[in-house]
Amino acid sequence: MSVEGKAKEAAGYVKEEMNEHGKSPESQKKAQEGRDLRNEGRVEDGKAPKTTKPGTGH
Predict the structure, then answer these.
(1) Is 5 left (phi over 0), alpha (psi -120 to 50) or beta?
(2) 58 C-beta neighbours (distance < 10 Å), count
(3) Per-residue pLDDT reduced to its tens digit, 41-55
(4) Contact at 8 Å (CB) between 42 and 5?
(5) Distance (Å, whole) CA 10 – CA 17
(6) Which pLDDT score is estimated for 50?
(7) How far is CA 34 from CA 12, 39, 45, in A?
(8) What is the Cα Rg of the chain in Å?
(9) What is the phi/psi pair of residue 28, to 5°?
């Protein structure tokens, strides 16, 4: 597990969690950007990417 992968996953998680409950298109876009960053870190560490929609709690 790489430090960079863990950092990306953590940063993506925070960005996703901060924006997942917003109703505006901007909030949803930021939540998706967080999910994308989180998945990039997960893939770097050999984990499967998250495939559910941001804000679903999975």
Answers:
(1) alpha
(2) 8
(3) 999 889 888 887 766
(4) yes
(5) 11
(6) 81
(7) 4, 9, 17
(8) 11
(9) -65, -35
